[in-house]
Amino acid sequence: MRGDAIEYIAAHGHEFDLIHASPPCQAFATLTTGTNQGRRVYPDLIAETRRALEATGRPWVIENVPTAPIKRDLMLCGAMFPELAVLRHRWFELGGIRVEQPEHPQHRGRVAGYRHGEWHQGPYIAVYGKGGGKGSVAEWQQAMGIDWTSARREIRQAIPPAYTEFIARAVLDQRSAGFTPVQTSGGESRWR
Length: 192
Prior knowledge:
By secondary structure, the chain is an alpha/beta fold. The protein is built from six helices and nine strands; from the N terminus they run αβααββββββαααββ. The strands form three sheets. It has a four-stranded mixed β-sheet with strand order 1-2-4-3, with helices on one face. The chain has a three-stranded mixed β-sheet with strand order 6-5-7. The protein is globular, with a radius of gyration of 18 Å. The mean pLDDT is about 85.
């Protein structure tokens, strides 16, 4: 099923216990703002997504790249998850939920691949871009914990499912501890 995510949130967001949104990140990605600056214009849907999520009265999460204009409530990195082999730092703005910031362990080494014409070994796989030396599709899938697609474009634009699972488990733990989300008079969700 395909459709406009913001329209879907507006029409059906109130039906869910928790909404996780990942607006397009290209407008804020390092390559777009650095090396490829000015080559293409990408949409910035963060504020519009946030407004739609807040209007639902339900708890929500917005995920994006480190340079995106979101509140920095939580940061996750592949190094926090032993099953992943990717360094993908992502920030999460949380609406109506709390999630403890896990410790960010020191990275175990380099990202494998070519840098300035030289091959480097390392425990991590580069899952981005179109350049050479980035690993096979199978390596990308394993590094990210993704098995439902073999399309490079889809994999490189995804976040590891382990990130979303981590947040969902934290919310479920809060619920089992007796905390429930409520909507304040200002329209924002919070836990009680």
